Amino acid sequence: MSAASPVAEERRVFRFAPSPNGLLHLGHAYSALLNHDLARAAGGAFLLRLEDIDRARCTPAFERRILDDLQWLGLGWDAAPRRQHEHFDDYATALDALQGEGLVYPGFMTRGETRAFASAFEEREGLPWPRDPDGAPLYPALDRDLGEAERRGRIAAGEPFAWRLDMGAALERLSAELAFEESGGGGREAVRADPALWGDVVLARFDTPTSYHLAVSVDDALQGVTDVVRGRDLLPSTSVHRLLQALLGLPVPRYHHHDLILGGDGRKLSKSRGDAAVRTLGEAGLTPEDIRRMVGLGLAPR
Ligand code: GLU
Protein backbone atom coordinates (compact mmCIF):
# COMPACT_ATOMS: atom_id res chain seq x y z
CA MET A 1 0.00 0.00 0.00
CA SER A 2 1.18 3.52 -0.73
CA ALA A 3 1.55 6.19 1.94
CA ALA A 4 -1.64 7.31 3.65
CA SER A 5 -3.54 9.73 1.51
CA PRO A 6 -4.98 12.92 3.01
CA VAL A 7 -8.30 12.39 1.20
CA ALA A 8 -10.93 9.99 2.54
CA GLU A 9 -10.48 6.42 1.30
CA GLU A 10 -12.87 5.73 -1.56
CA ARG A 11 -15.40 2.95 -1.07
CA ARG A 12 -14.65 0.45 -3.78
CA VAL A 13 -17.53 -0.99 -5.77
CA PHE A 14 -17.24 -4.24 -7.76
CA ARG A 15 -19.85 -5.91 -9.90
CA PHE A 16 -20.65 -9.18 -11.61
CA ALA A 17 -22.73 -8.74 -14.76
CA PRO A 18 -24.02 -12.00 -16.24
CA SER A 19 -26.46 -12.25 -19.13
CA PRO A 20 -29.41 -14.46 -18.16
CA ASN A 21 -29.42 -16.34 -21.46
CA GLY A 22 -28.06 -19.62 -20.11
CA LEU A 23 -26.69 -21.29 -16.99
CA LEU A 24 -23.59 -20.09 -15.15
CA HIS A 25 -20.51 -22.12 -16.02
CA LEU A 26 -17.21 -22.38 -14.17
CA GLY A 27 -15.86 -19.27 -15.93
CA HIS A 28 -18.76 -17.19 -14.61
CA ALA A 29 -18.36 -18.74 -11.17
CA TYR A 30 -14.69 -17.68 -11.14
CA SER A 31 -15.53 -14.11 -12.17
CA ALA A 32 -18.33 -13.80 -9.62
CA LEU A 33 -16.26 -15.28 -6.77
CA LEU A 34 -13.23 -13.14 -7.62
CA ASN A 35 -15.30 -9.93 -7.70
CA HIS A 36 -16.95 -10.87 -4.44
CA ASP A 37 -13.67 -11.76 -2.69
CA LEU A 38 -11.99 -8.56 -3.89
CA ALA A 39 -14.94 -6.47 -2.72
CA ARG A 40 -14.92 -8.11 0.71
CA ALA A 41 -11.14 -7.78 1.03
CA ALA A 42 -11.40 -4.06 0.20
CA GLY A 43 -14.32 -3.54 2.59
CA GLY A 44 -16.26 -2.47 -0.49
CA ALA A 45 -19.51 -3.38 -2.19
CA PHE A 46 -20.34 -6.29 -4.48
CA LEU A 47 -23.16 -5.55 -6.93
CA LEU A 48 -25.03 -7.64 -9.40
CA ARG A 49 -26.23 -6.55 -12.81
CA LEU A 50 -28.32 -8.66 -15.16
CA GLU A 51 -27.38 -7.83 -18.72
CA ASP A 52 -30.70 -8.74 -20.22
CA ILE A 53 -31.15 -6.32 -23.12
CA ASP A 54 -31.62 -9.24 -25.52
CA ARG A 55 -35.29 -9.83 -24.76
CA ALA A 56 -35.45 -12.86 -27.03
CA ARG A 57 -32.65 -14.86 -25.39
CA CYS A 58 -32.78 -13.69 -21.75
CA THR A 59 -35.49 -15.27 -19.62
CA PRO A 60 -36.77 -14.90 -16.04
CA ALA A 61 -36.14 -18.65 -15.59
CA PHE A 62 -32.41 -18.28 -16.39
CA GLU A 63 -32.27 -15.22 -14.14
CA ARG A 64 -33.73 -17.18 -11.22
CA ARG A 65 -31.32 -20.03 -11.77
CA ILE A 66 -28.34 -17.65 -11.92
CA LEU A 67 -29.35 -15.97 -8.65
CA ASP A 68 -29.86 -19.40 -7.04
CA ASP A 69 -26.47 -20.61 -8.26
CA LEU A 70 -24.72 -17.50 -6.94
CA GLN A 71 -26.38 -17.97 -3.56
CA TRP A 72 -25.40 -21.61 -3.56
CA LEU A 73 -21.80 -20.49 -4.17
CA GLY A 74 -22.12 -18.45 -0.99
CA LEU A 75 -22.39 -15.03 -2.61
CA GLY A 76 -24.54 -12.19 -1.36
CA TRP A 77 -24.85 -8.78 -3.01
CA ASP A 78 -25.14 -5.38 -1.41
CA ALA A 79 -28.06 -3.84 -3.34
CA ALA A 80 -30.98 -5.04 -5.43
CA PRO A 81 -29.71 -6.43 -8.75
CA ARG A 82 -29.94 -3.98 -11.66
CA ARG A 83 -31.82 -5.39 -14.64
CA GLN A 84 -30.82 -3.58 -17.78
CA HIS A 85 -34.20 -4.05 -19.45
CA GLU A 86 -35.77 -1.94 -16.70
CA HIS A 87 -33.49 0.99 -17.52
CA PHE A 88 -33.85 1.49 -21.24
CA ASP A 89 -34.55 5.21 -20.57
CA ASP A 90 -31.04 5.67 -19.16
CA TYR A 91 -29.48 4.34 -22.35
CA ALA A 92 -31.85 6.38 -24.52
CA THR A 93 -30.72 9.53 -22.68
CA ALA A 94 -27.07 8.70 -23.37
CA LEU A 95 -27.81 7.90 -27.01
CA ASP A 96 -29.70 11.21 -27.33
CA ALA A 97 -26.69 13.08 -26.00
CA LEU A 98 -24.42 11.47 -28.60
CA GLN A 99 -27.01 12.10 -31.32
CA GLY A 100 -27.17 15.74 -30.21
CA GLU A 101 -23.41 15.94 -30.77
CA GLY A 102 -23.84 14.61 -34.31
CA LEU A 103 -21.84 11.46 -33.49
CA VAL A 104 -24.45 8.86 -34.39
CA TYR A 105 -26.00 7.77 -37.68
CA PRO A 106 -28.42 5.05 -38.75
CA GLY A 107 -26.60 2.21 -40.55
CA PHE A 108 -28.90 0.16 -42.76
CA MET A 109 -26.52 -2.65 -43.77
CA THR A 110 -27.12 -5.97 -42.02
CA ARG A 111 -24.33 -8.18 -40.72
CA GLY A 112 -24.72 -10.43 -43.79
CA GLU A 113 -24.52 -7.44 -46.15
CA THR A 114 -21.41 -6.22 -44.36
CA ARG A 115 -19.75 -9.63 -44.72
CA ALA A 116 -20.70 -9.76 -48.41
CA PHE A 117 -19.33 -6.23 -48.92
CA ALA A 118 -16.04 -7.23 -47.26
CA SER A 119 -15.68 -10.42 -49.37
CA ALA A 120 -16.45 -8.54 -52.59
CA PHE A 121 -13.87 -5.90 -51.67
CA GLU A 122 -11.24 -8.56 -50.91
CA GLU A 123 -11.87 -10.35 -54.17
CA ARG A 124 -11.83 -7.18 -56.24
CA GLU A 125 -8.87 -5.44 -54.60
CA GLY A 126 -6.79 -8.41 -53.44
CA LEU A 127 -6.50 -6.69 -50.05
CA PRO A 128 -7.90 -7.73 -46.67
CA TRP A 129 -10.89 -5.70 -45.49
CA PRO A 130 -10.22 -4.62 -41.86
CA ARG A 131 -11.76 -6.68 -39.08
CA ASP A 132 -12.59 -5.84 -35.46
CA PRO A 133 -10.94 -7.64 -32.51
CA ASP A 134 -13.75 -10.24 -32.61
CA GLY A 135 -12.96 -10.95 -36.27
CA ALA A 136 -16.06 -9.31 -37.76
CA PRO A 137 -15.54 -7.04 -40.80
CA LEU A 138 -15.67 -3.34 -39.94
CA TYR A 139 -18.82 -1.53 -41.00
CA PRO A 140 -18.18 0.05 -44.41
CA ALA A 141 -20.16 3.17 -43.51
CA LEU A 142 -21.45 3.66 -47.04
CA ASP A 143 -24.51 5.26 -45.47
CA ARG A 144 -22.64 7.49 -43.02
CA ASP A 145 -23.19 10.44 -45.31
CA LEU A 146 -26.76 9.77 -46.43
CA GLY A 147 -28.91 12.87 -46.55
CA GLU A 148 -31.39 13.50 -43.76
CA ALA A 149 -34.39 13.06 -46.10
CA GLU A 150 -33.23 9.64 -47.25
CA ARG A 151 -32.53 8.51 -43.66
CA ARG A 152 -35.96 9.59 -42.51
CA GLY A 153 -37.63 8.00 -45.53
CA ARG A 154 -35.96 4.63 -45.00
CA ILE A 155 -36.70 4.64 -41.26
CA ALA A 156 -40.33 5.64 -41.92
CA ALA A 157 -40.58 2.81 -44.46
CA GLY A 158 -39.73 0.39 -41.66
CA GLU A 159 -36.26 -0.58 -42.91
CA PRO A 160 -34.24 -2.17 -40.05
CA PHE A 161 -31.14 -0.23 -38.98
CA ALA A 162 -28.63 0.18 -36.16
CA TRP A 163 -27.58 3.46 -34.56
CA ARG A 164 -23.83 3.53 -35.11
CA LEU A 165 -21.13 5.70 -33.60
CA ASP A 166 -19.29 7.75 -36.20
CA MET A 167 -15.89 6.65 -34.91
CA GLY A 168 -13.88 9.16 -36.96
CA ALA A 169 -15.98 12.10 -35.75
CA ALA A 170 -15.91 10.79 -32.15
CA LEU A 171 -12.11 10.52 -32.14
CA GLU A 172 -11.81 14.05 -33.49
CA ARG A 173 -13.68 15.32 -30.40
CA LEU A 174 -11.00 14.03 -28.05
CA SER A 175 -8.45 16.44 -26.71
CA ALA A 176 -6.02 13.75 -25.58
CA GLU A 177 -5.25 10.08 -26.09
CA LEU A 178 -7.37 7.78 -23.98
CA ALA A 179 -5.98 5.28 -21.52
CA PHE A 180 -7.23 3.13 -18.66
CA GLU A 181 -5.63 1.46 -15.66
CA GLU A 182 -5.30 -2.30 -16.06
CA SER A 183 -4.08 -4.75 -13.43
CA GLY A 184 -4.82 -8.05 -15.17
CA GLY A 185 -1.16 -8.54 -16.06
CA GLY A 186 0.06 -8.48 -12.47
CA GLY A 187 1.06 -4.90 -11.69
CA ARG A 188 -0.90 -1.81 -12.58
CA GLU A 189 -0.27 -0.37 -16.00
CA ALA A 190 -1.78 2.35 -18.14
CA VAL A 191 -3.17 0.81 -21.32
CA ARG A 192 -3.78 3.03 -24.34
CA ALA A 193 -7.36 2.71 -25.57
CA ASP A 194 -7.69 2.07 -29.30
CA PRO A 195 -11.41 2.27 -30.08
CA ALA A 196 -10.76 2.77 -33.80
CA LEU A 197 -10.08 -0.97 -33.98
CA TRP A 198 -13.86 -1.46 -33.74
CA GLY A 199 -14.92 1.00 -36.43
CA ASP A 200 -18.43 2.43 -36.30
CA VAL A 201 -19.76 0.33 -33.41
CA VAL A 202 -23.45 -0.28 -32.81
CA LEU A 203 -24.90 1.78 -29.94
CA ALA A 204 -28.53 0.72 -30.33
CA ARG A 205 -30.83 -0.94 -32.83
CA PHE A 206 -34.14 0.13 -34.25
CA ASP A 207 -35.84 -2.42 -31.98
CA THR A 208 -33.43 -2.43 -28.97
CA PRO A 209 -32.63 0.95 -27.44
CA THR A 210 -29.05 0.05 -26.49
CA SER A 211 -26.11 -2.23 -27.20
CA TYR A 212 -23.77 -4.02 -24.80
CA HIS A 213 -21.13 -1.25 -25.15
CA LEU A 214 -23.51 1.61 -24.39
CA ALA A 215 -25.36 -0.15 -21.55
CA VAL A 216 -22.19 -1.33 -19.78
CA SER A 217 -20.62 2.15 -19.92
CA VAL A 218 -23.75 3.88 -18.61
CA ASP A 219 -24.41 1.27 -15.93
CA ASP A 220 -20.89 1.14 -14.53
CA ALA A 221 -21.22 4.90 -14.01
CA LEU A 222 -24.77 4.81 -12.60
CA GLN A 223 -23.91 1.96 -10.23
CA GLY A 224 -20.80 3.81 -9.03
CA VAL A 225 -18.53 0.94 -10.07
CA THR A 226 -14.90 1.74 -9.24
CA ASP A 227 -13.41 -1.63 -10.25
CA VAL A 228 -14.41 -3.60 -13.33
CA VAL A 229 -13.17 -7.18 -12.96
CA ARG A 230 -14.10 -9.41 -15.89
CA GLY A 231 -12.70 -11.93 -18.35
CA ARG A 232 -9.75 -11.18 -20.60
CA ASP A 233 -11.96 -11.71 -23.65
CA LEU A 234 -13.50 -8.29 -22.91
CA LEU A 235 -10.19 -6.39 -22.77
CA PRO A 236 -10.46 -5.10 -26.37
CA SER A 237 -14.03 -3.87 -25.72
CA THR A 238 -12.72 -1.65 -22.92
CA SER A 239 -11.36 0.71 -25.56
CA VAL A 240 -14.93 1.40 -26.73
CA HIS A 241 -16.13 1.82 -23.15
CA ARG A 242 -13.30 4.26 -22.45
CA LEU A 243 -14.30 6.29 -25.51
CA LEU A 244 -17.97 6.39 -24.48
CA GLN A 245 -16.92 7.47 -20.98
CA ALA A 246 -14.97 10.35 -22.51
CA LEU A 247 -17.80 11.39 -24.84
CA LEU A 248 -20.49 11.16 -22.13
CA GLY A 249 -18.41 12.64 -19.31
CA LEU A 250 -18.57 9.46 -17.19
CA PRO A 251 -16.09 8.46 -14.47
CA VAL A 252 -13.44 5.93 -15.45
CA PRO A 253 -13.19 2.78 -13.31
CA ARG A 254 -10.05 0.68 -12.84
CA TYR A 255 -9.95 -2.50 -14.88
CA HIS A 256 -8.73 -6.00 -14.16
CA HIS A 257 -9.23 -8.50 -16.98
CA HIS A 258 -8.68 -11.94 -15.50
CA ASP A 259 -7.61 -15.16 -17.18
CA LEU A 260 -10.35 -17.31 -18.63
CA ILE A 261 -11.16 -20.76 -17.31
CA LEU A 262 -10.62 -23.10 -20.24
CA GLY A 263 -12.29 -26.42 -20.90
CA GLY A 264 -10.31 -29.67 -21.12
CA ASP A 265 -9.98 -29.04 -24.88
CA GLY A 266 -8.25 -25.70 -24.21
CA ARG A 267 -11.23 -23.75 -25.55
CA LYS A 268 -13.04 -20.93 -23.77
CA LEU A 269 -16.10 -22.29 -21.89
CA SER A 270 -19.39 -21.58 -23.59
CA LYS A 271 -22.95 -21.43 -22.36
CA SER A 272 -24.32 -22.50 -25.69
CA ARG A 273 -22.27 -25.72 -25.70
CA GLY A 274 -23.61 -26.37 -22.17
CA ASP A 275 -20.08 -26.47 -20.69
CA ALA A 276 -19.58 -27.27 -17.01
CA ALA A 277 -22.70 -25.59 -15.61
CA VAL A 278 -22.23 -24.81 -11.92
CA ARG A 279 -25.63 -26.41 -11.35
CA THR A 280 -24.59 -29.69 -12.97
CA LEU A 281 -21.44 -29.79 -10.86
CA GLY A 282 -23.50 -29.21 -7.71
CA GLU A 283 -25.96 -31.90 -8.69
CA ALA A 284 -23.04 -34.26 -9.20
CA GLY A 285 -22.15 -33.75 -5.54
CA LEU A 286 -19.45 -31.06 -5.69
CA THR A 287 -19.57 -28.41 -2.97
CA PRO A 288 -19.06 -24.64 -3.31
CA GLU A 289 -15.61 -25.15 -1.77
CA ASP A 290 -14.81 -27.69 -4.51
CA ILE A 291 -15.82 -25.07 -7.12
CA ARG A 292 -13.56 -22.47 -5.49
CA ARG A 293 -10.67 -24.94 -5.63
CA MET A 294 -11.42 -25.86 -9.27
CA VAL A 295 -11.13 -22.21 -10.34
CA GLY A 296 -7.98 -21.65 -8.28
CA LEU A 297 -9.43 -19.57 -5.44
CA GLY A 298 -8.76 -20.20 -1.77
CA LEU A 299 -11.26 -20.28 1.04
CA ALA A 300 -14.00 -17.66 1.09
CA PRO A 301 -13.05 -14.48 3.00
CA ARG A 302 -15.16 -14.03 6.13
N1 GLU B 1 -22.56 -9.60 -19.69
C1 GLU B 1 -21.21 -9.87 -20.05
C2 GLU B 1 -21.00 -11.37 -20.09
O1 GLU B 1 -21.83 -12.11 -19.55
C3 GLU B 1 -20.22 -9.29 -19.06
C4 GLU B 1 -19.98 -7.88 -19.32
C5 GLU B 1 -19.03 -7.17 -18.37
O2 GLU B 1 -18.64 -7.72 -17.34
O3 GLU B 1 -18.71 -6.04 -18.67
O4 GLU B 1 -20.05 -11.80 -20.66
Automatic annotation (TrEMBL):
InterPro entries listed in its UniProt record: aa-tRNA-synth_I_CS, Glu/Gln-tRNA-synth, Glu/Gln-tRNA-synth_Ib_cat-dom, GluQ/Sye, Rossmann-like_a/b/a_fold
Keyword Transferase: no
Keywords from the named record: Aminoacyl-tRNA synthetase, ATP-binding, Ligase, Metal-binding, Nucleotide-binding, Protein biosynthesis, Zinc
MF terms in GO: ATP binding; glutamate-tRNA ligase activity
Highest taxon of source: Bacteria
Signal peptide range: none
EC number: 6.1.1.-
Protein name per the record: Glutamyl-Q tRNA(Asp) synthetase
